[in-house]
């Protein structure tokens, strides 16, 4: 029985990854053409971002054993922009956040921009590069992020910096919160649950039927953290996310 289930999961995984490859080959040139046609009149790239949201969300729609429930989408006010932060469990978090169909710019390590398909989408959407290990890493990040915020774009950050190995919430880095302070921008915390089992951190074999959750929490106004230090703000937001994450897990047990 165990061997049979393993064979089934490998077969399903091959089908899903093949679909990802084929769909990316088809959608990439469409995205490039759409970008060329719309960028002269759409300086904030909202149209290409919506296309990217569709591109990401359709994987959840198409794969029959994946499901996603989004709570409190209304907490993202389309008239405002935020520093968006969330816990990070797996590669699937990307398609989950895209499924919000809200406007934002990704932040991603510079190496990811060199990847086929993923890197091309990041570039098309003018995503923000993070130069890990560089002496001026924050300054390079800030220059891009401030420009994006000043033009009315939210930015999306996974403050753990990498995917969790065991599902536990890791320590938050200060960069996103330092940016929120320096630009006096509200923080929008979000919680993702269930994606760690969808796409494992190591390996390519999927785990089968999984339910994913994205909960958009209430924005934290600048006034609520303006008197805190960068590390204190980081800990403050981490506590909010961890509390909601534990609540979601207690309900799903």
Describe the 3D structure.
The protein has 253 residues and is α/β, with parallel strands linked by helices. 46% of the residues lie in helices and 14% in strands. It has eight helices and seven strands; from the N terminus they run ααββαβαβαβαββαα. The protein has a seven-stranded mixed β-sheet with strand order 1-7-6-2-5-3-4, sandwiched between helices. α1 packs antiparallel against α2. It is globular, with a radius of gyration of 18 Å. The protein starts with a helix and ends with a helix.
User: How big a fraction of the residues is strand?
Assistant: 5-15%
Q: Briefly, what CATH class?
A: Alpha Beta
State the separation between the terminal residues, measured CA to CA. Answer: 25 Å
Assembly classification: single chain
Radius of gyration: 18 Å
Give the strand order, joined by hyphens, for the main sheet: 1-7-6-2-5-3-4
Q: Could you describe the largest sheet, including whether it forms a barrel?
A: 7 strands, mixed
Shape: globular
Structural class, please?
A: alpha/beta
Q: Which fold name fills CATH's third level, the topology?
A: Glycerol-3-phosphate (1)-acyltransferase
């Amino acid at each position: 029985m165990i061997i049979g289930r393993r064979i089934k999961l490998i077969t399903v995984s091959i089908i899903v990854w093949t679909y990802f490859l084929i769909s990316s080959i088809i959608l990439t040139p469409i995205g490039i053409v759409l970008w060329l046609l719309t960028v002269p009149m759409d300086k904030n790239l909202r149209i290409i971002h919506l296309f990217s949201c569709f591109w990401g969300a359709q994987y959840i729609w198409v794969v029959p054993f994946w499901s996603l429930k989004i709570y409190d989408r209304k907490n993202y006010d389309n008239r405002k922009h935020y520093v968006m932060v969330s816990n990070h469990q797996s590669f699937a978090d990307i398609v989950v956040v895209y499924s919000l169909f809200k406007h934002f710019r990704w932040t991603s390590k510079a190496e990811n921009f060199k990847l086929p398909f993923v890197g091309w989408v990041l570039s098309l959407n003018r995503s923000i590069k993070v130069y890990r290990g560089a002496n001026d890493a924050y300054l390079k990040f800030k220059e891009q992020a401030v420009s994006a915020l000043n033009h009315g774009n939210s930015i999306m950050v996974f403050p753990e910096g990498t995917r969790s190995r065991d599902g536990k919430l890791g320590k938050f880095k200060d960069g996103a919160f330092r940016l929120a302070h320096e630009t006096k921008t509200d923080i929008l915390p979000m919680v993702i649950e269930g994606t760690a089992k969808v796409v494992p951190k190591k390996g390519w074999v999927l785990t089968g039927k999984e339910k994913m959750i994205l909960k958009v929490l209430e924005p934290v106004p600048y006034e609520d953290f303006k008197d805190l230090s960068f590390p204190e703000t980081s800990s403050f937001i981490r506590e909010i996310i961890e509390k909601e994450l534990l609540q979601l897990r207690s309900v799903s047990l």
